[in-house]
Design a protein that fits this description.
The structure holds 2 protein chains of 2 kinds. By secondary structure, chain A is an all-beta fold. Chain A contains no helices and 12 strands. In chain A, the strands form 3 sheets. In chain A, strands 2, 5, 6, 10, 11 and 12 form a 6-stranded mixed beta sheet that branches. A 4-stranded antiparallel beta sheet of chain A has the order 3-9-8-7, with no helix packed on it. A two-stranded antiparallel ribbon of chain A has the order 1-4. The radius of gyration of chain A is 14 Å and the shape is globular. By secondary structure, chain B is mainly β. Helix content of chain B is 0%, strand content 53%. In chain B, strands 2, 4, 5, 6, 9, 12 and 13 form a 7-stranded mixed beta sheet that branches. A 4-stranded antiparallel beta sheet of chain B has the order 1-3-8-7, with no helix packed on it. Classes of the chains: A mainly beta, B mainly beta. Chains A and B meet through strand 6, strand 10 and strand 11 of A and strand 4, strand 5, strand 9 and strand 11 of B.
Amino acid sequence: AQTVTQSQPEMSVQEAETVTLSCTYDTSENNYYLFWYKQPPSRQMILVIRQEAYKQQNATENRFSVNFQKAAKSFSLKISDSQLGDTAMYFCAFIPSYNTDKLIFGTGTRLQVFP
Amino acid sequence: EAQVTQNPRYLITVTGKKLTVTCSQNMNHEYMSWYRQDPGLGLRQIYYSMNVEVTDKGDVPEGYKVSRKEKRNFPLILESPSPNQTSLYFCASRDVLAGGPTDTQYFGPGTRLTVL
């Protein structure tokens, strides 16, 4: 079965510090997409970062970066210089192949950034 | 403004009373999906559509119907709602380019449904 596991239900970090959110997934496919989504209290789903499985280079978007380990099926999110506005639920997700819109989500990690 | 709209945003209904949640996108996207979000379970895909008249089941399709008669609209139909369908529902859409689906999935604002 294709699944996504986020083993940290809740995390907290002090403003300006760095935090890493964990994600592992399971698939037998070789080509797929990986994503991190942010859901603030407004409930809006916001794409934070994405990674194509065939690319070895880790994706970065400003303060957000990933550590993609394909062999280990791991896709962690690092948030540097954490800001109060980063407080949200974070979901790891993946599309298991190129020819589907089947998007599989993890159960989420609630991140609290405190001053 | 590129957006996905859902209506209604909030709905309280009773068991067995048929309802439809509408979803519309103005970006001419080919792919559209419906998800439900429940505490501790994340988002689970209900149905998705890769083009007009093409729909497929996601992970939790039981009790739901969809249709895709026009590219912009993808309504979610609950023929006989039950309390276990109380949830937060999201519609989403994304484009398809020559190289495959794009990465950016646009989500609607969500519909909070309560079935009594």
